[in-house]
Amino acid sequence: MCFTTSSEIRMTKGPKKSAAAKVGFIGVGLMGSGMVSCLQMAGHETHLLIHKNRSPIEKACKNGAISYDNICDLADNVEILFLCLPSSEEVVEIARKLTTAPSKITFVIDCTTNSPDSVVNINKIFSNGNIEYLEAPLTGGVTQAAEGQLGAILGGTEDAVKKALPLLRSCCSQMSHVGPIGMGAKTKLVSNFLALGTATLVVEAFHIAKKIGIDWQSFYDLACQGSGHSMSLDRIAPRAIEGNYEGYVFSISNTAKDFRYIHKLFLEEDLELANLSKWILTQYESAEEKGLGNSLLSQRLDPRILER
């Protein structure tokens, strides 16, 4: 591990082993599944809360994870807990449960994409329950989660960061401590504005290209030679050209949720950017209203499910 600045931490190549720990994890979904696998490969004992989609839980249990139907039973068996939940609403609910019932948990690492206002409230709830809290929203996607190559944006105290590093290095190749509680959420939202905004522009560009008769393959080949070339373009375009619109694995509902958070932040900081974020948000809320919340962002190009 090398420290490139006082706040930025990049992991060197090689084993990501650390002293084995008992770790709880709530939110074993697309991202959480890969993280749990990396924690297991690093030798950590993983304890998981069961949710509706049992497939990733069952997979983890085959590799030694212990699962629980009840959050109180989970909280009675671990001191450290990861959260990787859909929104701040679920985090607040979990925080209240953990602080109003008997629990051994002393430290929470929250990888959820939260709103800045909510994360301050979440920290307060945990603090009142004598539970230390670190926000650690992530950069990267499902592939990076499975490969242990995520980025983590850390908001909290220096002590909390030091405590979390041995666990986070199992899942992350780069981590940056960006400041106190709240700064992690703000940094993550600006990062998602860039990432999801770029992906949205890719979708819109291919939509208008088809509308005016531009061949997608030719358009992609040319775009790859210019500054419009991006990871989002490479995820979405080649598959869409072949009729597969599932290249960008991030749901419409999650995109809308993130842009609601982004829009609220921008309203407080920059009205011109707020107008742009509002336009992007409208595209995803419109898709949600058509019942497409569970579809992927890139499926807005699929003529079978979305007509514009």
Description of the molecule:
It contains 12 helices and 11 strands. Helix 2 links the parallel strand 4 (45-49) and strand 5. The protein is of the alpha/beta class and 308 residues long. The chain has 2 domains: 2-180, NAD(P)-binding Rossmann-like Domain (Rossmann fold, 3-Layer(aba) Sandwich); 187-301, N-(1-d-carboxylethyl)-l-norvaline Dehydrogenase, domain 2.
User: Please, what is the average pLDDT?
Assistant: 93
The radius of gyration is 20 Å
CATH topology annotation of the largest domain:
Rossmann fold
> How many structural domains in the coordinates?
2
Strand content: 5-15%
- In quaternary terms, these chains amount to single chain
Low-confidence stretches: 1-6, 11-15
Termini separation = 49 Å
The CATH architecture of the largest domain comes to 3-Layer(aba) Sandwich
Shape: globular
User: Which strand order spans the largest sheet, edge to edge or round the barrel?
Assistant: 5-4-3-6-7-8
Largest sheet: 6 strands, parallel
Can you say what the CATH homologous superfamily of the largest domain is? NAD(P)-binding Rossmann-like Domain
